[in-house]
């Protein structure tokens, strides 16, 4: 599909840094004309910059996990401190790959009984040391940029599991575009989890509200609760109230 190809092309350019249109044509088995059209869309989404004979990645599109971890650290701790109250003994939860949720398990009783699904390496390290946690690692390919696992090949086996609550992160959050993600290779997992989970909780700091990114993985109306660090604007509160979305700040 065109959308999948464009996403894959964007991710490939990010990984390579700079590529030629001829290289992309061979890699994705499409014409030069199609490549140029796809690059135009990626440039519009602020993922790449077109250059003579090819394209190069925006230098700020996928900051390293360590760099992202240090951004708005106080807000992230504030948010996870609220989120921890929505985890109950016996829950089956998914914890997303974003830096906002990586410390969530550290705030819980070490002896809590949980089933944890995650592709977040930091969460995996914590969960593996908790004696009463059943840990399921989502993904089979490690991405050191995002400190997370993604799928290389088929990922359909995840659909056979039941998940009570999903604690999700986002690169950007708007009413129009919903929950957006700048990392195309994580898109499949985020989309899949939002279809599986009974209750979706979005953890988002105010720096991401009103911003959008490359791909939408869920609409706002699909979210059950939003936890942030500042009171949302009237526009967002009115939308949340009209769609029965709970919010905490």
Helix/strand structural class: alpha/beta
Proportion in helices: 25-40%
Query: Which fold name fills CATH's third level, the topology of the largest domain?
Result: Rossmann fold
Number of helices: 8
Give the class-level CATH name of the largest domain.
Answer: Alpha Beta
Terminal Cα separation, in Å? 39 Å
Major beta-sheet overview: 7 strands, parallel
**What is the CA-based Rg, rounded?**
19 Å
* CATH architectural type of the largest domain: 3-Layer(aba) Sandwich
What spatial form do the alpha-carbon principal axes imply?
Answer: globular
**Integer tally of domains:** 2
Strand segment count? 15
Low-confidence stretches: none
| Beta strand % | 15-25%
| Strand line-up across the major sheet | 6-5-4-9-12-14-15
Name the helix and strand elements from N-terminus to C-terminus, one letter apiece: HEHHEEHHEEHEEEEEEHEEEHE
Average predicted local confidence, pLDDT:
88
Task: Walk me through what this model shows.
- Residues 2-57 form the HTH deoR-type domain.
- It is a single chain.
- This protein has 249 residues and is an alpha/beta fold.
- The protein folds into 2 domains: 2-57, Winged helix-like DNA-binding domain superfamily/Winged helix DNA-binding domain (Arc Repressor Mutant, subunit A); 66-248, Rossmann fold (3-Layer(aba) Sandwich).
- It contains 8 helices and 15 strands.
- The protein has helices spanning 2-16, 21-28, 32-44, 65-70, 73-83, 121-127, 187-196, 234-242, and strands spanning 18-20, 48-51, 54-57, 92-95, 114-118, 133-137, 141-143, 148-150, 163-168, 172-174, 178-181, 197-203, 215-218, 225-227, 246-248.
- The strands form 4 sheets. Strands 6-5-4-9-12-14-15 form a 7-stranded parallel β-sheet, with helices on both faces. A 3-stranded antiparallel β-sheet has the order 1-3-2.
- A hairpin with a 3-residue loop joins strand 10 (172-174) and strand 11.
- The protein is globular and about 55 Å long.
- The model has no long low-confidence stretch (mean pLDDT 88).
């Amino acid at each position: 599909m065109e959308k999948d190809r464009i996403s894959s092309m964007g991710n490939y350019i990010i990984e390579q840094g700079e590529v030629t249109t001829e290289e992309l044509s061979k890699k994705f088995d499409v014409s030069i004309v199609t490549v140029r059209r796809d690059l135009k869309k990626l440039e519009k989404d602020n993922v790449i910059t077109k250059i003579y004979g090819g394209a190069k990645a925006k230098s700020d599109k996928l900051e390293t996990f360590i760099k992202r971890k240090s951004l708005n650290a106080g807000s992230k701790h504030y948010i996870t401190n609220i989120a921890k109250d929505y985890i109950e003994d016996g829950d089956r939860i998914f914890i997303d790959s974003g830096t906002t949720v990586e410390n969530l398990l550290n705030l819980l009783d070490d002896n809590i009984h949980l089933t944890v699904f995650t592709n977040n390496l930091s969460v995996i390290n914590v969960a593996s040391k908790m004696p009463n946690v059943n840990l399921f690692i989502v993904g089979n390919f490690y991405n050191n940029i995002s400190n997370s696992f993604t799928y290389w090949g088929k990922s359909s086996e995840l659909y056979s599991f039941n998940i009570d609550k999903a604690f999700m992160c986002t690169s950007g959050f708007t009413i129009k575009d919903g929950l957006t993600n700048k990392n195309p290779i994580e898109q499949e997992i985020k989309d899949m989890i939002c279809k599986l989970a009974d209750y979706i909780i979005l953890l988002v700091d105010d720096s991401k509200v009103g911003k959008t990114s490359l791909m939408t993985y869920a609409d706002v109306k699909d979210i059950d609760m939003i936890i942030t660090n500042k009171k949302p604007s009237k526009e967002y509160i009115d939308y949340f109230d009209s769609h029965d979305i709970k919010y905490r700040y």
